[in-house]
Structure formats: structure tokens, C-alpha cells
Amino acid sequence: MNDQELAELYRRCGALIYRRCLKLLADPAAAQDATQEVFIRLMSQIHRLESRDDDYLPWIYRVATNHCLNVVRDDARLALFEPGALPDRGAAGEAAAYPDRDLTARLLRRFDEVTRSIAVLALVDNLSQDEIAEVLGISRKTVGKKLRLFVERARRFVERAA
């Protein structure tokens, strides 16, 4: 893949990757940085794109998801989530707009990268297990097992944290 083809790939997929990063990071500047980082990684692994012919989008999506999950995991990133920036949880009739981000980040750090990706794709993006298997390039059975394990361990973790 040459520079012109990579530029075309950015024109076709850049907005999709940015939206994915924005959904996971909830910060436009961080999402823009993450999008650029994803494409820098793609340039360094161009041989992996070339071997995928036209079926490269799930791989790019996975690279973006994993990168953003790693950003969220980093303690430096957690410091940017000021409690005062979150909506008031005590407003009458209002559900909390955001979960406890610190608790969520601590929970996600307890799992491997594949399990974190499965959890986010299932619980945040509402993808089916078949769709997750396709995006991540793993079996549906693996998705089901890892998702069940995540939910079981997450429940216990949240109960202990409460």
C-alpha cells in the first residue's frame, strides 16, 4: 500500500475511527489524538493491511478499540476525569449520565485486552456476539465464554467495591 492508498483509507475510514475513539474516550481532543495514533500504527504495520485485501475494516476497528481501552486504562488519563465534570447524580428523576469512571477503569484493568474489547463491544456498542466475533476475528464461542466471565467477575468486583 502506497502513501496515496493510505491517504484514501484515511478519507474513507478516518471519520468512523474518530467516532469510535470519541465514544470510548468522551473527549474530542483525545479522540483526535487517538485517531491519528491508530493511523500511525497502520502505517507501521502496512503489511498487515495489504494481506487483508478489502477486509481490513474489522482489523482497523479493533486497533482503534484496543488503543482507546489502553488510553482509558492509563492512570494519567484517569486524572483528566474530574468528578465535578460529571453530571449531578442527585438530580430528581435523572439517571446518572455516566458510570463511575474510576470504578470502570479499575474493573477493566483486571481483564486481558480481548476480554476488555468484548465487554466494550457488547455493553457499550450493543454488538451481538456474532458481530463481536467478526470484528475481533475470534470464535463466537470464545466471545460467549469471555463475556460470561467478564459479567460474573464484574458483579463480584462491584459488590466488593460498594
Outline the fold blueprint.
Layout: H1 3-25, H2 28-44, H3 46-50, H4 57-73, H5 75-78, H6 101-109, H7 113-123, H8 129-136, H9 140-161
Q: How large is the share of residues in beta strands?
A: under 5%
Which stretches are poorly predicted, pLDDT < 50 over at least 5 residues?
Answer: 75-98
Mean pLDDT: 77
- Provide the helix percentage: over 70%
User: How many H/I helices?
Assistant: 9
Q: In CATH terms, what is the fold-level topology of the largest domain? A: Rna Polymerase Sigma Factor, Chain: A
Distance between the termini: 51 Å
The domain tally reads 2
What structural class should be given to the helix and strand makeup? mainly alpha
Q: Give, in order, the helices and strands.
A: HHHHHHHHH
Overall shape? globular
What is the makeup of the main sheet? Answer: none
* CATH architecture title of the largest domain: Orthogonal Bundle
CATH class of the largest domain: Mainly Alpha
What is the CATH superfamily of the largest domain?
RNA polymerase sigma factor, region 2, helix turn helix motif
What does the radius of gyration come to?
17 Å
Extended strand count = 0
